[in-house]
Amino acid sequence: MQITVLAGGVGGAKFLRGVRAACPGDEVTAIVNTGDDVTLHGLRITPDLDSVMYTLADANDLERGWGRAGESWRIQDELKAYGAEPSWFNLGDLDIATHLVRTRMLDAGYPLSDVVAALCTRWHTGIRLLPMTDERCETHVIVDLDGGRRAIHFQEWWVKHRAGLPAHGFVQIGLDDARPAPGVLEAIATADAVLIAPSNPVVSIGTVLGVPGIREAIAATPGRVVGVSPIIDGAPVRGMADVCLPAIGVEVSAEGVGRHYGARADGGGLLDTWLIHKSDTADVPGVDVRAVPLLMTDDEASAAMVREALR
Ligand code: GDP
Ligand code: CA
After folding, report:
1. Which Pfam family would be a valid example here (predicted)?
2. For the chain, domain boundaries
């Protein structure tokens, strides 16, 4: 089987561990959001790709939920001592090594997809990771700040303001002109199944789907398209999808997100099947809705979810 997964960061990473456990011997490709990417202190940082890479490699910190296990923060402390801004973005010493290798390769002219492949040779992820695009395209959030309406970088909103400033909308700068990274459209077109991970529907999956050509490739693939709800009992299991969805006019419920993704049968939508948590209900016209356990408490639970998705 060939399985292609659209994914964001932490939620996507947990789901991908489940795919890997459920599908030994299958060829799995993850198309990962790069809209959260940012350049800070001269370093190019790709948070979702790193969450997926570290998590698949068992190198992630489980308590903190992001970054490397066994991390230290000496470089960051030094930057703070110099008064180097921004000081609100946490950069661990081990993580900085990854950013240095990435930035150097990008500066030398390698596309991000080559950089990701090179980084992954060290980590043995078992899943092929592709950035959604090689082009720079960064999510900004429209907020009221300093007496005016402005667009700030997604990371500034998410990390500095803890998503506490009401979002009036999201703009992905550069997205309209972005092209899917090499291999992305092929991975969708030749997949037996396309899985939409229970990642943030707005700033993870929504951004991936905004790359011109990706939505059309999903509409046209002969494989089945199965989405997994990140919303259980009217709330995100983790993260801040509950503040992102209302900003785009979508109800925070499994039904709301299912309807937002829409039925492929209607043309224009994405889904053949929509998995919701066993205690939820959802009516999504044109979509086969199944209620199964959706809590990714451990790899076995995530793998069971994936087996349901593939059934
Ligand atoms: P981020 O990029 O690190 O924010 O992570 P993602 O966008 O990949 O995933 C965030 C989403 O994962 C949130 O909206 C959560 O609701 C969802 N999520 C986290 N854990 C679980 C889980 O155990 N089950 C389900 N169904 N969704 C989850
Ligand atoms: Ca993210």
Report:
1. CofD
2. 2-60+99-135+180-232+255-310
Q: Mapping DSSP to helix (H, G, I), strand (E, B) and coil, where does residue 300 land?
A: helix
* Atom 24 of ligand 1, nearest CA residue: 295
Distance from the alpha carbon of residue 48 to the mean position of ligand 2, in angstroms? 5
Number of neighbours of residue 191 by Cβ within 10 angstroms: 24
- CATH H-level superfamily of 2-60+99-135+180-232+255-310: CofD-like domains (3.40.50.10680)
Tell me if 210 sits within 8 A of 171, measured CB to CB. no
Residue 268's pLDDT is 84
Residue 64 CB–ligand 1 contact under 6 Å: no
Ligand number nearest CA of 155 is: 2
Instruction: For ligand 1, say whether the CB of 11 is within 6 Å of any of its atoms.
Output: yes
Farthest CA pair distance, the chain: 58
Give the pLDDT confidence of 160-213 residue by residue, as tens digits: 999 999 999 999 999 999 999 999 999 999 999 999 999 999 999 999 999 999
* Residues with Cβ–ion distance below 5 A, ligand 2: 8-9, 36, 48
Nearest to 97 by CA among 121, 75, 128, 65: 75
Say yes or no: CB of residue 200 within 6 Å of ligand 1. yes
**How much is the pLDDT for 266?**
86
Is the entire prediction scored with pTM above 0.90?
A: yes
Q: State phi, psi for 221 to the nearest 5 degrees.
A: -70, 140
Cα 191 to ligand 2 centroid, rounded to whole Å: 24
pLDDT tens-digit readout, 103-120: 999 999 999 999 999 999
